[in-house]
Each structure stands twice: as structure tokens, then as C-alpha cells.
């Protein structure tokens, strides 16, 4: 188990760590909640960081950058207007903005964008379910577009905040999740988490220099439950009855979640498979130590959901998810 004191000590030591000096990061979803808390701590606890911050609008990003400059005036903070990231075309515009400005490397790609809705399938103009797109397709497109810069870094890492270790059953004959009988909030959540872990494992086989981390943050006191996509009754029940009572005992503060994710983004415990110098590396998502893909619970302990995932690996569903996803990228974005 990763102790809270160990996380605090490791994060505090980043200021004096040569490997963290001059770190270049891309943070997607850093405008609120876990991502914002992570961004604040990444900026304040590292030396001369360069951080590309992907957010919906430039005014929103400029306000955040003003705060970051106060936290660490030696950092460089680059706003990247992303717009609606349920659209892969907007993801492509954001990554093109980054690659046009960054000619060197990306040490860290951190992704926590998303929104919550209990409505049915909401298909975007690109033919993708919006909820699944922002949880899975958009994040994997960020990785693929930024792969050359990640490969240039000495010890690159990708962190996806979603539901690592609590993957659920999917529909191998309906990978698009278009059949109305298959679509529900629970099934869409399972698709996002299961596809993410299995796609990252496929990526790792092709790019063993990169460490891939898929986390489950637990319950965090953020404004996600104020989303306009949720009904007024649910928001009242959750924000005024649940969170002030039970929630204050079981929910993490954004600051604590941000600190834990900074540890996940920087600790050698989650080293890439090619990094033979790392010690005390944990067991990966496939149950193999030092595999290069790690699914972490809210305490940043390594967990692996073999009950759900192993049958899919044995049946080749992981390869089919890779083929399905890349085919969807080709359909939406063409040969770009």
C-alpha cells in the first residue's frame, strides 16, 4: 500500500530532483476538479516546468495561467484552446497547436477531461457517443498524435484518470455501443474503462519506452455533479444531502486527489517496461510486475482486474478494440 506520508515526501522532493527539472507536460482537463488540483501542484512542486494546458476557452485558460505564474514564476505555461473535446476534430486541432510549438519532447501527458450524464446515447456529428468519446476516443487520440514527442523524452509517461482496476463487461459484437439494448450509463462506463486499459496495453507493446498509467480517483469533491447534463433533483440530492453528510467522510478533496496523481505521474514505481534501472516497480494491469501499464486505485495502489480483462485478452478482444478504434479514427479524421 502506498502511504499518504510517502506520497507527500516524494512530491516535496521533486523540487530537488534532476529528472523533474525542466519537465515538459501536456495537461488535458486541468481547468477544474482533479485536473486543476494536479496542475497547481505540478507547477508549484517542479523546477522550471513547461506546461501546455488544454481547455475549452482561452479566457478560462488565461485566468488559470495567471494563478500558476504566482505559484511558480519560473514556469512556462502555454494555453491550448480545445473547445468541445468530445469531437476528435477538436482534439486534432489541439494537438496540432502543441506540435507546432513544441519541437523537443513531452515528458508527461496527463488527461482527466469528462462530464457526467445519465441520458442515453448522445451521438456527436462525428458519429461517436459523446460520453464514450471524451472518456476513451479523445484521450487515445491525444496519445497517438503526441507519440513522436513522447518518444523523444527520456522517461515519458501517460496518465489517464478514469476507472483503472474497475473495468466492466463490454459487447465484443457491438464495440460501437450503438445497439439501444446495450446502451446504459453503467455499460458506457464499463466500455470507457475496459477499452482504455486494453488499448493502453496494445500501445505499450508497440511503445515500451512509455509508461502508461490508468487511475481510478475514487469519490472526489468536485463540481462534476453540478453538470448541466444532470437533473435538478439529482443535483440537489447529491450536493445538499449526500456530500455534506456521508460524502465528507468518504470523498477526497481535490487537493488530496491532485497530490496522489502527481505521485502517479512521477514515481518510479510505475516505470516503463524498457526502464531497467527502476526499482520497486509494481505489478501491471496484466498481473505482471513492471509490465509498463498500471491500473491504480484511489490510493495509487496497483490493482489488476483479471476476472474481467483476462478472458478478453485470451479471445483477442484487445486486438479487436485496437482495430476498431484506429478504424474509427480513420473514418472521422481520414488518413491524417
UniProtKB/TrEMBL annotation:
One of its GO terms (molecular function) is oxidoreductase activity. Keywords: Oxidoreductase. Gene3D superfamilies: NAD(P)-binding Rossmann-like Domain. InterPro entries: NAD(P)-bd_dom_sf (IPR036291), SDR_fam (IPR002347), Sec_Metab_Biosynth_Oxidored (IPR052228). The keyword Oxidoreductase applies. This is Uncharacterized protein. It comes from Diplogelasinospora grovesii.
Amino acid at each position: 500500500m502506498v502511504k499518504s506520508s510517502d506520497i507527500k515526501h516524494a512530491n516535496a522532493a521533486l523540487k530537488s530532483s534532476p529528472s523533474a527539472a525542466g519537465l515538459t507536460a501536456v495537461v488535458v482537463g486541468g481547468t477544474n476538479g482533479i485536473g486543476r488540483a494536479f496542475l497547481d501542484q505540478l507547477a508549484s512542486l517542479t523546477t522550471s516546468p513547461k506546461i501546455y494546458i488544454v481547455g475549452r476557452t482561452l479566457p478560462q485558460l488565461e485566468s488559470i495561467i495567471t494563478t500558476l505564474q504566482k505559484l511558480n514564476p519560473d514556469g512556462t505555461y502555454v494555453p491550448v484552446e480545445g473547445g468541445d473535446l468530445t469531437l476528435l476534430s477538436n482534439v486534432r486541432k489541439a494537438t496540432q497547436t502543441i506540435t507546432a510549438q513544441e519541437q523537443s519532447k513531452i515528458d508527461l501527458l496527463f488527461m482527466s477531461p469528462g462530464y457526467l450524464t445519465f441520458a442515453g446515447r448522445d451521438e456527436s456529428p462525428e458519429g461517436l457517443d459523446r460520453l464514450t468519446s471524451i472518456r476513451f476516443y479523445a484521450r487515445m487520440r491525444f496519445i497517438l498524435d503526441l507519440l513522436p514527442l513522447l518518444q523523444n523524452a527520456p522517461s515519458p509517461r501517460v496518465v489517464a484518470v478514469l476507472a483503472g482496476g474497475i473495468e466492466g463487461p463490454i459487447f465484443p459484437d457491438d464495440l460501437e455501443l450503438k445497439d439501444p439494448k446495450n446502451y446504459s450509463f453503467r455499460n458506457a462506463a464499463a466500455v470507457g474503462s475496459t477499452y482504455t486499459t486494453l488499448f493502453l496495453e496494445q500501445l505499450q507493446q508497440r511503445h515500451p519506452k512509455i509508461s502508461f498509467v490508468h487511475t481510478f480517483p475514487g469519490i472526489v469533491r468536485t463540481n462534476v455533479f453540478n453538470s448541466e447534463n444532470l437533473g435538478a433533483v439529482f443535483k440537489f440530492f447529491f450536493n445538499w444531502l449526500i456530500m455534506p453528510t456521508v460524502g465528507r467522510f468518504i470523498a477526497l478533496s481535490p487537493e488530496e486527489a491532485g497530490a496522489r496523481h502527481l505521485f502517479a505521474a512521477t514515481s518510479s514505481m510505475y516505470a516503463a517496461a524498457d526502464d531497467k534501472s527502476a526499482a520497486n516497480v509494481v505489478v501491471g494491469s496484466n498481473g505482471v510486475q513492471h509490465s509498463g501499464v498500471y491500473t491504480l486505485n484511489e490510493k495509487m495502489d496497483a490493482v489488476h482486474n483479471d476476472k474481467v480483462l483476462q478472458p478478453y485478452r485470451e479471445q483477442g478482444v484487445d486486438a479487436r478494440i485496437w482495430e476498431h478504434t484506429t478504424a474509427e479514427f480513420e473514418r472521422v479524421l481520414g488518413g491524417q
